[in-house]
Structure formats: structure tokens, C-alpha cells
Amino acid sequence: MKHIDEKRLEADVEYRFQYVAEYIGFGPGDERAIREAAALTLPLVPRLVDEVYDAFHRFDATWRHFLSRQQGKADFGTSLDRRLQELTPEHAMVKTRKHSLGRYFVRLMSEPFDAAMIQYMDAMGRIHNAESHRSRLDVPLVQMNAFLGQLADVIFGLIRGLGLEPDREFALIRAYSKVLWLQNDLVARHYLRLAGS
């Protein structure tokens, strides 16, 4: 039986990532499946980003996070509805965030899951929680979970449309499923740490 230092899981993000990766079986074969499919998946990044943002735009609870300086908080008053209507998917703020999300997807699809990637994935959780980061973003955990769940569905649907042979398709879906669970853990840790303190 392998010993796991549970206190270190909370303090050392790389140790935590390696533990969760080993536990769920994410390893070199998964990374290989992702890299080998990159020539097919990278051209899908704009479509992936658009589908994610279409979902954000369907709900005020997610779309309000694109208002400048987080002025979309629930207590902002009656002008919130007007401001949400004025914030279109073509707005400069939205385009900037879409570009950032696209860069995130490109990194996941094309770079190794090394220490730099682990830190990058961890930052995705930290920057969306104002209490754990000096950020103007304050996205509730429920919205992050909804995003990651919808993202899984979109990614798996896009993979199914690639026309890969069944074993390769299954390997790629499994690999991305594990990546999304790893990302979910690195998001949740920033919220749960605050809840526990």
C-alpha cells in the first residue's frame, strides 16, 4: 500500500496533481492520446470556445461575470438586466476572455503535463475566486462546476465527430475526461480551502 501525505496534498499542488493523476489512471498513454490527436483537435478550438460562450450567454448567473469590475453582483440593482443585455458576445471584454480560453485549450491540447502545466491549471482555479486571488473575478464554484461539466460534453461531442477509429476515440475521450477531473480538483481546492478556514 502506498502512503500518501494528506497534509502535503493541501500544501503542494504538484504532489496533489500527481496523486489524483495516479489515482484516476492519468499517465503517459493519456498524454500521448491527446498529443497525437492535436492536429485534429487544435483546429476545433474556436468552435469549442464558441460553444462554451454560447452556454455562458444563456444564463445571467454566468454572463454577469463578464461585466467589467464584477459589477454584475446580485446586489447591483435593477440596471443589471440592462447591462447584461448591452454586453453582447462581440464586446471587447468578451472577445478578450474568449481569446484567453482559446489559449488555455491550446495549451491543454499541445503541451506536456509537467510542473509548468500543473501551475497553469492551478491558476485557473485561483484566478476565478476573488477570495483566494487578488482578482476582479468572483465566480461561484457552482458556475465553475457547470462550466467544466458542459465543457466535458462539448469536448466529447467534438471528439466523436472526428471520425477516429473506435479504440483511438475511446482513448482520447478517456484522456480528456481525466484532464477535466484533474482541472476540477485544482479549481475546487481554492474554494474548499476557504470554506474550511
From TrEMBL:
Origin superkingdom: Bacteria
InterPro entries for the chain: Globin-sensor_dom, Globin/Proto
The protein's name: Protoglobin family protein
Annotated Globin-sensor domain residues: 14-193
Residues annotated as signal peptide: none
Pfam families named in the record: Protoglobin
PANTHER family: GLOBIN-SENSOR DOMAIN-CONTAINING PROTEIN, PROTOGLOBIN DOMAIN-CONTAINING PROTEIN
Gene3D superfamilies noted in UniProt: Globins
Biological source species: Paludisphaera mucosa
